[in-house]
């Protein structure tokens, strides 16, 4: 075990192009794990801010000037020789063309099809997180009716939606089975993924991609059910901690703003949202009273993306 003061702080960059590809660099000879692929970045100096370290490292390693970077996830990982705390940023704007200043190999890759290996061991969950789309829709068929709901879901899929949660509290069992099956069929036609709220069995029966656990269920779980994609709803630090401990694929943190579906809940606001997600190792979707226009605000506050119900499907 490493003492907390021995944990090496690292700033790492997911430099992303508009087509979704991101840059990986191969660790040069002479460093530990030479030949392994990593996200560009490096150690934070004492008294240096994370963002400053990020800018300095990308200038030193790639010759680029960071113009716009969003804080993203933070992962601690223990190697035999050292423990590292990796603070990931998504760099979306820079000037200069990345050029290997230290003779390292560079490669642009896509999260769902990384064609270089080996990756640094700490980075496997990071690639899975990068494969999650920025918007997560939650169905609302009990309010809209099944027919209109399916029409709206299809429109959103046509417009690029790639992640949907079937959440229909109070819908009769048979109707829910049929509706969930329809959503899965529709979504898979567009290459989108579907999570089923709460019901692991229904998820398997309708061939959905994952399960979304409400916070009460999350707090009672001792392990994940062995399903590829597992999401959870969180409202506070304790629930986020439990989701991290279990190794959820992602979480939704709510309510950020006042929302019709939970009018009685106390809202977090963006500052509290940012404080809660700052050290979180999981990608976090902001939820509650949000619209498509709020995506950038979510990114600025450390979110992976936004989740929406009425504003999207
Ligand atoms: N840059 C970077 N480092 C990572 C990643 N994943 C990961 O485990 N690390 C670890 O974080 C540490 C970063 O240290 P580094 O050696 O790259 O730092 P540096 O550029 O400041 O080099 P230096 O040792 O010459 O001062 C290493 O232990 C590395 O194995 C990643 O994706 N990017």
UniProtKB/TrEMBL annotation:
Boundaries of every Nudix hydrolase domain copy: 5-134
Family according to the record: Belongs to the Nudix hydrolase family.
InterPro entries noted in UniProt: Aldolase_TIM, MutT-like, Nudix_hydrolase, NUDIX_hydrolase-like_dom_sf, NUDIX_hydrolase_CS, NUDIX_hydrolase_dom, ThiamineP_synth_sf, ThiamineP_synth_TenI
Keyword Transmembrane: no
Listed cofactors: Mg(2+)
E.C. no: 3.6.1.55
Entry keyword set: DNA damage, DNA repair, DNA replication, Hydrolase, Magnesium, Metal-binding, Mutator protein
NCBIfam families in the record: PRK08999.1
Catalytically driven reaction(s): 8-oxo-GTP + H2O = 8-oxo-GMP + diphosphate + H(+); 8-oxo-dGTP + H2O = 8-oxo-dGMP + diphosphate + H(+)
Protein name in UniProt: 8-oxo-dGTP diphosphatase
Keyword Cell membrane in annotation: no
């Amino acid at each position: 075990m490493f003492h907390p003061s021995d944990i090496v702080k690292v700033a790492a960059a997911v430099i992303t192009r508009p087509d979704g590809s991101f840059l990986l660099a191969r660790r040069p000879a002479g460093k530990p794990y030479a030949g392994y692929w990593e996200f560009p970045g490096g150690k934070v100096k004492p008294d240096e801010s994370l963002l400053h370290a990020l800018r300095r490292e990308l200038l030193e390693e790639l010759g680029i000037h960071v113009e716009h970077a969003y804080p993203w996830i933070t992962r601690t990982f223990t190697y035999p020789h050292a423990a590292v705390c990796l603070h990931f940023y998504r760099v979306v704007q820079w000037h200069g063309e990345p050029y290997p200043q230290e003779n390292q190999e560079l490669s642009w890759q896509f999260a769902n099809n990384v064609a270089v290996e080996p990756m640094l061991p700490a980075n496997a969950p990071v690639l899975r997180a990068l494969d999650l789309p920025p918007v997560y829709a939650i169905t609302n068929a009990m309010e809209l009716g099944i027919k209109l709901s399916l029409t709206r879901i299809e429109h959103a899929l046509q417009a690029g939606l790639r992640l949907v949660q079937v959440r229909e509290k109070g819908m009769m069992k048979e109707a829910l089975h049929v509706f969930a099956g329809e959503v899965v069929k529709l979504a898979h036609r567009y290459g989108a993924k579907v999570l089923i709220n709460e019901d692991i069995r229904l998820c398997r029966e309708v061939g959905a991609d994952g399960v979304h656990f409400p916070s009460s269920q999350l707090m009672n779980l001792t392990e994940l059910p062995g399903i590829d994609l597992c999401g959870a709803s969180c409202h506070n630090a304790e629930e986020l901690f439990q989701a991290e401990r279990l190794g959820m694929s992602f979480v939704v943190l709510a309510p950020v703003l006042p929302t019709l579906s939970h009018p009685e809940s106390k809202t977090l606001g963006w500052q509290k949202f940012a404080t809660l997600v700052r050290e979180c190792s999981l990608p976090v979707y902001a939820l509650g009273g949000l619209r498509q226009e709020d995506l950038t605000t979510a990114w600025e506050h450390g979110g992976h993306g936004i989740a929406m119900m009425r504003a999207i499907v």
